[in-house]
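REQUEST FORM: STRUCTURE PREDICTION
Request ID: SP-0412
Submitted by: Lab K.M.
Chain count: 1
Length (residues): 242
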Amino acid sequence: MTEFERYLFDLQGFLIIENALDSEQILALQTLLDQQITLHDAVDKPFLRFDSLLPWGQPFRDLIDHPAIAPYLDELLGEKFRLDHDYVHIIRQGLGPIGAELHGGGTPYDPCQYYLFNNGRMYNGLTAVAYELNDVHPGEGGFGCIPGSHKSNLPLPKQWRNLEFPGICVQAVTVKAGSAIIFTEALTHGTLPWRGTSDRRTLFYKYSPYPSAWAKYSYNVDDYPDLTPSQRQILSQPGVYP
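STATUS: Completed
RESULT:
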């Protein structure tokens, strides 16, 4: 991370990494995603969520330690970070799988989802990488957050939670297809109602420090014989060194 990126992440709780995915990667991921939508007879549903993307193909497994993203995770989570869980959200119009309520924030403290700064470095709990497969334009909705709320000393007022009527402190994050949004789960964030002309398709890969787990399940590395040593380590169970 550059000095500017460190400052910006500490300031606002998220970073945008443009061109994290190239056009070939986006096409491969979109094609596999279309196959799963057809397989699950979900072409006409207003929104979808699929968990555990790694069995779908090599393009999804390549994102485990994506070289454009892994250096950021090294600094935000420590060298021995692990992939905690993964999923995709597809939203055609309106609300998505998690509704329109903001969640997260620096207070109350959550031992799995936190942000701390000590001895000149950042420490994070659960940290998300959200890959947008389609453009997100101004006014279309999608990822929204309250910048700086990962360091808040007070809980979010209840009357500001509903993103159908977002408060002035909420920022909509607009990005080009292929961009990745890296954010700490301690950031107050959520999904603004989708108003785009195309689907909102977002892959979520969520990482934890090596000793920590948020999800109830863990990965079985033996299910994926093509993993690299780095990927096997990242899929290891919490606190268990491969």
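NOTES: The chain has one domain: 3-234.
Reviewed by: T.R.
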